[in-house]
Specification:
This protein is an alpha/beta fold. The strands form 2 sheets. The chain has a 7-stranded mixed sheet. Strands 8-9-12-11-10 form a 5-stranded mixed sheet, with helices on one face. It is globular. It contains 14 helices and 12 strands. The chain is 36% helix and 13% strand. Helix 7 links the parallel strand 4 and strand 5. The two termini are 24 Å apart.
Length: 421
């Protein structure tokens, strides 16, 4: 927020100039849009690049005691990792460790924190593969896995937290986009002696900061919005406590769940545009959610930014913006297939957060409690006017009944929405 006064305060001598006052004042904290561009970069030095290139090395010169060398073996550390981990640590507010994928990061966290006899409370509507890992791999090892919906902070019920070791949150949830109150649930969990991890993939630290809201861990798939170009598989964990960071680092080294230096360098290069990309995506997503909510062929829309969304009030309190993902439902599978056939700017593909607008009928994978007509759509950075026009055409085609007249008048409704904005 801009200050109401640009000159001296009433306590300053009138003779002191604005320039003199500014020169005496400490530097203000940098804004996120600046921090994300500068994060993890080395000190400027003549003749060097802003971001050094990737280091490709399996082994390093390390005579004598390996502890005396900064680097000894490629499975343990890499200069390119360190640069991006430094950037993520600055942005997350806790020590960050890179992994070969978001799932590798999730498994490292679960494997480090949980032991036989422990209990984990997970979202029933969270990312399916994370739930699958817990129930099919960790449960047979003696871990009790219990689930509850993200909505209404159901995971915070005292009977669920009682005796638990870890509370795993995902907000907004994927693909349903329900939101839970991180601070409230973290307070309840900590009072019960339970650690808290938050999958922050959908929002990223640019839209909400779980560690600042009290969580102990953040896990993310950097594959998605963080990298944003659909060309890198990567993940990370950020920890409030340095002791946990060291334990998870040991897991990574021993299990070999390490990222390639080229992927890490590409991610760090992409980081500088994260704020610009997400800002455009969130603005477009808000317009598109409004448009979908008004279209007669759309049966349901979920977007935390909609005032009518059941998660809106919670999201408004803890998120800066509401993300690039919009979920909606058409009547049936056939309608979704007509939608994709008519769309020109919407890639039919999985994943989300990239610069290209994409969507998929989520039920095709199984595992999520969604209808056959449920669509998860990731909004890209294309001009929203073009996206709205394409959506209007595709949605009208989705409502067309084979062998009969259209379900709705196939006029382009996108212009009406844009005229209101």
């Amino acid at each position: 927020m801009m200050s109401e006064s640009t000159g001296a305060s009433t306590n300053e001598p009138a003779s002191k100039s604005t320039g003199e006052l500014l020169s005496d004042a400490p530097d203000p904290p940098m804004h996120d849009a600046t921090r994300v561009v500068r994060a993890g970069l080395p000190q400027a030095a003549a003749g060097t690049p802003y971001l050094p290139g990737p280091t490709f090395a399996a082994t390093y010169h390390s005579p004598g005691d390996p502890a005396d060398s900064s680097y000894a073996y490629g499975r343990m550390d890499n200069p390119t990792w360190r640069a991006y981990e430094k950037a993520l640590t600055e942005l997350e507010g806790g020590s960050a460790l890179l992994f070969s994928s978001g799932m590798a990061a999730s498994v490292a966290l679960l494997g480090t924190v949980l032991s036989r006899g422990d209990k984990i409370v997970m979202p029933a509507d969270g990312y399916y593969t994370t739930r699958l890992i817990a129930t099919e791999y960790f449960a047979p090892l003696g871990i009790e896995v219990v689930t509850a919906p993200t909505a209404n902070d159901a995971q915070g019920a005292s009977e669920l937290l009682s005796g638990a070791r870890l509370l795993w949150l995902e907000t907004p949830s994927n693909p349903g986009l329900d939101v839970c109150d991180i601070a409230r649930l973290t307070t309840a969990a900590h009072a019960a002696g339970v650690l808290v991890a938050v999958d922050n993939t959908t929002a990223t630290m640019m839209l909400q900061r779980p560690l600042a809201l009290g969580a102990d861990f953040v896990v993310m798939s950097d594959t998605k919005a963080m990298c944003g170009h659909a060309d890198v598989i990567l993940g990370h964990v950020a920890c409030r406590d340095s002791e946990w960071e060291e334990k998870i680092r040991i897991w990574r080294t021993r299990m070999g769940a390490i990222p390639g230096p080229m992927e890490v360098w590409l991610a760090h290069r992409s980081l500088g545009t994260l704020d610009v990309r997400l800002s455009r995506q969130c603005e477009s997503a808000a317009l598109i959610a409004d448009f979908l909510a008004s279209h007669p062929n759309v049966e349901m829309v979920r977007y935390p930014g909609l005032a009518s969304d059941p998660s809106h009030e919670t999201a408004r309190r803890q998120m800066k913006k509401f993300g690039p993902v919009v979920s909606f439902a058409l009547a049936d599978r056939a309608g979704v297939e007509r939608f994709f056939k008519a769309a020109k700017l919407i890639h039919e593909a999985t994943s989300f957060g990239g610069i290209h607008t994409s969507a998929e009928r989520r039920a095709r994978w199984g595992g999520d409690a969604v209808s056959e007509g449920f669509v998860r759509m990731s909004i890209g950075i294309e001009d929203v006017r073009d996206l709205l026009h394409d959506l209007s055409t595709a949605l009208n085609a989705a409502g067309q009944q084979v062998g009969t007249n259209d379900k709705t008048d196939r006029t382009d409704m996108s212009g009406e929405l844009l005229a209101k904005t």
